[in-house]
Specification:
Helix content: 25-40%
Distance between the termini: 40 Å
Strand content: 25-35%
Shape: globular
CATH architecture of the largest domain: 2-Layer Sandwich
Radius of gyration: 18 Å
Length: 231
Amino acid sequence: MNSLQMMISIMDRERLPSFVSLYRSMNCTLHIVALGQGTASNEVLGYLGLSGSEKAVVFSVVTEEIFKGIRKELQQKMRIDVPGTGIVFTIPISSIGGIREYRYLTDGLGFEKGEVSEMKETKHELIVVINNQGYSGMVIDAAKEGGAGGGTVIHAQGSGRKEAEKLLGFSLASGREMLFIVAPTGKKNSIMESVMKKAGLETPAKAISFSLPVTSTAGLRLVEEEETDAG
C-alpha cells in the first residue's frame, strides 16, 4: 500500500537550500523548517553523517512511493550515504484531523483517500499540530479540553504549494509553530477534534493536525495509572 509518511530531514544549515530544492523537484512541496543545535561530539557527529553544530530540521509529507524516488536522488545527487551530508527518515502518518486538512496535506501526491492507516496496536500517538505563530496557547488550551496533558512547542517556518494553499485560504510562508502532544490512542480523536473545533482553520490559529504512531514510551505510566484510579 502507498502509505502517507512524515519525512524528517536533519542537515547542516548551509545545506538546507539544496535539500529543499531536491524535494521540490520530486513533487514534495510541503515543508515545515525548524532550526536546531547539535550537541553531540565530533566523533558521534561523524558517525551520524553530520558536522558542525548548527542544524536545520525539515518536516515534509510524502508517500511511500515518492520517498523511494527521493531516497534514490539523495543517494545519487546528495551522496546521503557519505558522512557529512545529513540524515533522512520517515514515520507513517496514522490519521489526519479534518477533510480540508487531509486534502491540503495530500495535494499533488497522488494519494487516495482511505490509505492513511490506523495503528490500532499502539497505545500512544504523537499528535502534531501546525499553527500560526503566537497561537500555541490557544491550541494547547483546546488540546487540554480534549484530554491532552500538555505539549511541546517548536518555532518553525512553513512553505507549500500555492495550489494547495488555496484549499486553506492562507499561506504557510509566515512564521509557524509546531506543537507535539503524546497522548493515549483512546484520547487521540477527542484531542484532535477539540483542536479542530476551537483552534482550527476558521480561527486565528489556523491549526492543522495529524498523528504518528508511538511504539514505546517512558514517563507516561504513572499519569495513566492516576487517571485510572481516579475513574
